[in-house]
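Complex 291.
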Amino acid sequence: MSLKIGRNDPCWCGSGKKYKYCHQAFDNHYELLRQQGAALPQPMLLKKPEDVEKIKEACAINMAVLDYVAEHIAAGISTQQIDDWVHEETVRRGGIPAPLGYEGFPKSVCTSINEVVCHGIPSETEILKEGDIVNVDVSTIYNGYFADSSRMFCIGQVSPEKEELVRVVKECVEIGIQHVKPWEPIGNMGHAVHQHAKEHGYSVVREIGGHGVGFEFHEDPWVSYTSEEGSGMIMVPGMMFTIEPMVNMGGAAIWTDEEDGWTVRTEDGLPSAQWEVTVLVTDDGCEVVCW
Ligand code: MF3
Ligand code: CO
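Predicted structure with MF3 bound:
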């Protein structure tokens, strides 16, 4: 018995199309790279069109919640207020905030101000003030599917140095998006992100990266933004992952608060910024599904 499908047979995926017009090119690419020993994603993590539709529903909530935050954030509010908004606006739309209870995380969103790199815990006593830069990292579960994105907000007038950091990190993400190309290693994307940050004299956090997302909050691959060209997992159409570099104005070194177990800060106390999008690898690049 042979499992080999003829070019004119119906595709194995159930589309009803002939194999040659459907998954044959995909299978050839995958098999060739597998034989070459390349790192490839597990097929079960690849998103089919119907999966993408479901995940996009979670993304729509995630983005609406961030839009809400963008409209209301201002000097004088507490980060707990942001947590309340995120919780209420997510639940109102039928979603669940993914961070709440995730590995013991106590709140519904991460709020990371100035030298806080990521995983800041919202608090009643932490009040946003003019000149702060803050990352709000929102993740949503909807119908069992996961969305993840984060944005930076400048509170009132911020210093030109902070403003440039925030702008350049956004550019880093845009450059990363441009470097998502099917059948190429993901290290090419991370390398391009790193280059842009370095050109501006910034450093990129090494220990914490991005991740696959969609069926779970955090899936393979782990994604570095300090990677070498030609390294890492092959980007395969149907893969979904985040581009979320943490970029420091000063050195790359970070430390984690032992008291709360979460808050990550820069070693030198200088500001850090992060933007996060989720992309879907396509046949000719990628589609940004969450921002
Ligand atoms: N949203 C973060 C990410 O981009 C994950 C935060 S984990 C949490 O991966 F528990 F702190 F929410
Ligand atoms: Co993420």
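Residues 148, 210-211, 242, 244, 276 surround cobalt (II) ion (ligand 2) (CB under 6 Å).
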